[in-house]
Amino acid sequence: MYVCSSNSMTFSLYRVTWTLLHMLISALHFIECVWISVRKKLDLLHKKCTEDEYDFISRYVKLFDKVPSHLVVIVGNESISYRDLANVAVWCIAAGISFISFYDHHGNLKKNETELFRALSEVTKGHLDNIIWGKKTKTHGLIKRNGTKNGVISTQKLHVNIFSLSDGKGALVQLARSICQSAISGQIKSADINQDIIDTKLQAEMDIPDPELALICGDVCSTYGFLPWQIRVTEFLQLQSHHNIQVKDFLLLLMRYGKCAQRFGK
Amino acid sequence: MTFHCAVYFPKLVVLWIISILHLKISLPSLVEMSWIRDSTLSWIQLLCVKIIKNGRVPKHVAFIMDGNRRYAKKNNVQKVEGHSQGFEKLAETLQWCLDLGISEVTVYAFSIENFKRSQEEVDALMELSRQKFKQLLCEKDKLMEHGVCIRIIGNLSLLPQDIQKLIAQAMILTKDNNKTFLNVAFAYTAREEMAQAVQAVVSGVEDGALRVSDVTQKLLSSCMYTSTSPDPELLIRTSGEVRLSDYMLWQVSCSCIYFADVLWPEFSIWHLLAAIIKFQRSYAQLVPVCQADEMANGSCSERSSVFQTRLAASRLATLEELSHAIS
């Protein structure tokens, strides 16, 4: 009995230590979050409105070795701040990023697409000429393409797409089903199926290049089920929160991406 | 001239001593390159392991063992030595996982993309694997004693015939073990895996074994190379790179990902414990994602079950054939 109680005492001692360890980490994390939000508020107060954000970003990105052609924002478990997502979209135009996708595995972003549209209108002050709504949006095809602004054709376009959980594995399942149908009608043989065929078909459906950079919002690092086929060589960077994201944070992430060296297996 | 000798001679002596020490350190590793070994943890490390085990420990951890070549460059040794050290680290990590109660581990040993490397390096890697798989078969008793089930996932047809035979033998030998599972991704990419799963399903429909309505997420999962394993709960990538490099893209949808800024041969128990702490803190937020993914699985019809059983049987038959092939 003495041995039993000594064992259970040791057991609860380990348990207490484990709990204390996690409490300590939570406390440190809380302090870090407070510090970041205080710093953000201070930055906002001291913000010099002398330089246009657009020019600032386009000047800065010229210093980077590379800029992604397709950026994804994975919202994760955060509540959606449409204003901040719209800001990121506009900064992408300034940075020369041609494709932006927003991923919310809950599907709320897809449901509330009009909110994002409204936020983008506000941020661009109605000049939505640069924005092309991709195949994965409800607004796709609804807006008449004009492309001119004061008689000048704006060259930098941003394709916007919104994804949810069903666009990942679900899209592959749908593709498999359609290939099965083609096989039944004799248009294709199973022996002919390979990576390239699947890639071509998925590309045709989505009309976007594979994402090169993904920003995961929140503390948890996970793909949350985002497009498994397309994230083969995507760089994943953690963004503490997309709420009140500043230009500085955005540029820091692009700078980190610029430093990544891809070897592609070689 | 004598001055120069006086300066260089001590340097030479020091270099000579260092090279002997280095050899001494690496010689034991040349001899004891076993897959399964005894615990190397100090008492304080074991204490920390005991503490961490009070929280949730992932049942299946996947590793991208990156950084062998950079390690070799950093230490001025040959690339193959870097890979060899990498194998050492793998064996050590397996022991740590056993100590932690992690019953399944999947490691990314060789990607199909790695065939693009110089012929010299590919041949050296193949030779290293040949030695390792041969050794694995020699350690048969240890494997059976510890109940280790070895599975090699990937497109084995891309490998040299003799290695295919060794792999098949190892897999058949250990297929009924169920205490610990070691999956080695060899000649593997996630896209190739997903493509062959789609091909298997289409083939099933062509044969009339399946209907189009049977094609669900769950069916595709069962056609993957990893069909007999649960999805990894934690994915660890070393060397500081922050991408998945075509590794288990289908299976890590709900996994906690940990990018460790350390080269694989320098990976330590502390890094592993840090990854598990991160997992413990992320778990609650990932459960709903797993549940949503589960819900999207779809149902499994009678035809699907029969198809899956047939597929598993045909894969086993291929392995049996390979293991008996005349090399």
Would you kindly provide a written description of the structure presented here, covering whatever features stand out?
- The complex is a heterodimer of chains A (266) and B (327).
- In chain A, 46% of the residues lie in helices and 12% in strands.
- In chain A, the strands form two sheets. Chain A has a six-stranded parallel β-sheet with strand order 3-6-2-1-7-8, with helices on one face.
- With 266 residues, chain A is of the alpha/beta class.
- In chain A, helix 2 crosses helix 3 and helix 3 (82-95) crosses helix 5 (113-123).
- Chain B has helices at 2-31, 43-52, 68-74, 79-100, 119-138, 140-146, 161-174, 190-207, 217-223, 269-295, 302-324; strands at residues 60-64, 104-111, 148-153, 180-188, 234-237, 256-259.
- In chain B, helix 7 (161-174) links the parallel strand 3 (148-153) and strand 4.
- The chains are: A alpha/beta (266), B alpha/beta (327).
- The interface between A and B is large, with 59 and 59 residues.
Query: Main beta sheet of chain A, described?
Result: 6 strands, parallel
Strand content of chain B: 5-15%
Class of secondary structure makeup of chain A = alpha/beta
Task: Indicate the mean pLDDT of chain B.
Answer: 89
Tell me about the biggest sheet of chain B?
A: 6 strands, parallel
Count of distinct strands of chain A: 8
Biggest interface, and residues per chain? A-B, 59 and 59 residues
How many angstroms separate the termini of chain B? 61 Å
Given helix and strand content, the structural type of chain B is: alpha/beta
